[in-house]
Amino acid sequence: MARSDPQFNLRVPIELKQKVEGAAKESGRSINAEAVYRLEKSFDAPVSLNSTDAEMMTKIVASSMKKLIDELKNEGVESDKLASAIHNVANK
């Protein structure tokens, strides 16, 4: 990065500034280079989950769905109507 690159002022919360400073020190980059690196990285490919994160997310969603279904059943929603509604939403 050259000194001739455009500059712009950016206000950030002190906690974020401290995180960038810490990351810069750890990576051996300047604070500016660390901020640019992280900003560029945010425009890269979408974030992908590793298998552990994906498994945890699946468990959370499954648990939430089970609670929702149980509550709907407790409210008197018939199982066949519930199954039909789930099927319809899943196939949209």
TrEMBL record:
Annotated transmembrane regions: none
GO molecular function, one term: DNA binding
Entry keywords, A to Z: DNA-binding
Limits of the Arc-like DNA binding domain: 2-46
Record keyword Thylakoid present: no
Keyword DNA-binding: yes
Top-level taxon in the UniProt lineage: Bacteria
Protein name: Arc family DNA-binding protein
Organism: Acinetobacter pollinis
